[in-house]
Specification:
mainly alpha
């Protein structure tokens, strides 16, 4: 059980760090970010959690709000899994 929690925590951590990197590249790349292969890789990795959070928000929510809320959910899940692992 501890291994499963650690594996889930690693996946959540990877998604959170990819989301941070996507936001950082969004800021420094500007309009050319869609042609950046590293940006495309991070966008591919973070598409499922961003899509899930976007479906939970009202239609037309700004992308920065979706990203911020997605990061908050991932961070909360990461902390929760750490606490769960420490109690088991």
């Amino acid at each position: 059980m501890s291994f499963l929690i650690a594996a889930l925590r690693a996946i959540v951590e990877m998604l959170g760090l990819s989301l941070l990197a996507l936001g950082f590249l969004h800021v420094i790349s500007g309009a050319r970010r869609e042609r950046n292969p590293i940006y495309q890789l991070f966008a591919l990795i973070t598409r499922p959690p961003l899509g899930l959070v976007a479906r939970l928000l009202p239609t037309g929510s700004p992308s920065w709000l979706v990203g911020l809320l997605c990061f908050t959910v991932l961070f909360t899940l990461w902390i929760g899994l750490a606490l769960l692992r420490s109690f088991l």
